[in-house]
Amino acid sequence: MSKKRTNPDFVNGVPELVVLDLLAKRPMYGYELVQAIREASGGTLEFGEGCVYPLLHKLEERGQLASRRMEIGGRSRVVYRVTVGGRKRFAEAAARWREVVEGVQQVLGGSTSVPSRAG
Amino acid sequence: MSKKRTNPDFVNGVPELVVLDLLAKRPMYGYELVQAIREASGGTLEFGEGCVYPLLHKLEERGQLASRRMEIGGRSRVVYRVTVGGRKRFAEAAARWREVVEGVQQVLGGSTSVPSRAG
DNA sequence: TTGGCATACCTCAAACCAATAGGTATCGTC
DNA sequence: GACGATACCTATTGGTTTGAGGTATGCCAA
Questions:
Q1: pLDDT tens, A48-103?
Q2: Contact B18/B89 with Cβ under 8 angstroms?
Q3: Which residues have a Cβ under 8 Å from the Cβ of A103 and sit 6 or more positions away?
Q4: Is B64 in a helix, a strand, or coil?
Q5: What is residue A74's predicted lDDT score, i.e. its pLDDT?
Q6: Residue A55's closest CA among A75, A25, A36, A80?
Q7: CA at B30, C1' at C5: how many angstroms apart?
Q8: What's residue A40's pLDDT?
Q9: CA-based angle A34:A35:A40, to the nearest 5?
Q10: Using CB atoms within 10 A as the burial measure, which of A1, A18, A27, A118 is most buried?
Q11: Average pLDDT in chain A
Q12: Considering CB atoms only, which of B7, B100, B102 is closest to A9?
C-alpha cells in the first residue's frame, strides 16, 4: 500500500463549486449528485460520498442549500436545492475560480507552448 | 478578527505548479520568487514566504529543485533551479491542472455565461 | 556607534479540505 | 434468510496554505 493522497491535485473548493452549479440546474439527492459530478465532468472530477455528503450538510448549515425529503422510486430521498444565498455563493466562487485560472494562465502563459527564448 | 482562512479558494498545488514554472524560466531565490509569483499573475496569486520556503525545501528533497548559494548584490542568496525531474514533475502537474480546469469547465459549461462564439 | 527599515531566510501551530474506510438501512432477487 | 446495489452518514487521516514569529545582514540617518 502506498501513501494515502488526500489532497492529490488542484481540487480544493471545486466540489463546492460544482455542487452549487449542478444543484442550481436541477435539484438532486446526494447519491445522484456523486454520479452527476462524474458524468458532467467526463470522468475527470470524481468526489466520493465522504466528500459530497459532509459538503451538502455544510452548505445547508450556511443556508446555501435547502433539503427536502421526497418520495422517489417509492423511497424517501433527501433532495437538495440551491437557495438564493447559494446562487450568490456560486457566483462568488465561480468568479474566484476564474481569477485563479487566469492567474495561473498568466504565469504559465508562454511556457506551455513557447520554446525557450534567449534572455 | 474573524476566522482564519487557511484554504481560501482553489489554490492547492498551484504554488508548486507556478514555482516549477517560474524557476524553469529563470533561477531565482526565495524572496525573489515570492514577488515573481505575485507579479507574473498580475497580483491574483500571492503566496507568502511561509508557503514558498517550505515548498522549495520539499521540492529540493524530492530532487526536483537544486539550490546553490550565489553572491548577488554582495550577499549570498540561495538560488534554486529546476532539475530534469522537476521539469517532468511540472509537465505532469500542468497536465493535471488542465484536466481539472477542463473538467470544471465541462460542468459549469453553460452556466457561467460567456457565450464564446469562437468555439 | 546606535537605531530603524527593508531585504532575505527559516520554522511552527492552526485551520481547512478531500480521501479513505467504516457503519447503517432499504429494496429486489435468489 | 442471504446477498448485493442503492442511499445516507460519520470519524479519522493526510496534506497544504496561512499567519505569525524569529534570526541575520546591508543601508541610511542621527
A1: 999 999 999 999 999 999 999 998 888 889 999 999 999 999 999 999 999 999 99
A2: no
A3: B41, B42, B44, B45
A4: coil
A5: 81
A6: A80
A7: 20
A8: 95
A9: 105
A10: A18
A11: 87
A12: B100
The structure's pTM equals 0.86
Closest by CA to B49, choosing from B36, B62, B68, is: B36
Best of A6, A16, A22, A44 to mutate (most B CBs within 10 Å, chain B):
A44
The burial of A100, by beta-carbon neighbours within 10 Å (0-12 exposed, 13-18 middle, 19 or more buried), is given as buried
Number of Cβ within a 10 Å radius of residue B22: 22
Please report the beta strands in B1-116, taking only residues with DSSP state E, as ranges in sequence order: 28-29, 65-72, 75-82
Q: How confident is the model at residue A109 (pLDDT cuts 50, 70, 90)?
A: confident
State the number of CA atoms in the 13 A half-sphere of A115 facing the CB. 0
> Phi, psi (5° rounding) for residue B57?
-65, -40
* Beta strands at B28-29 and B65-72: parallel, antiparallel or unpaired: unpaired
Which residues of B fall within a CB distance of 8 Å from A45? 100, 103-104, 107
What is the mean pLDDT of each successive set of 10 residues along chain B, which is 119 residues long?
62 96 96 95 94 97 95 89 96 95 91 42
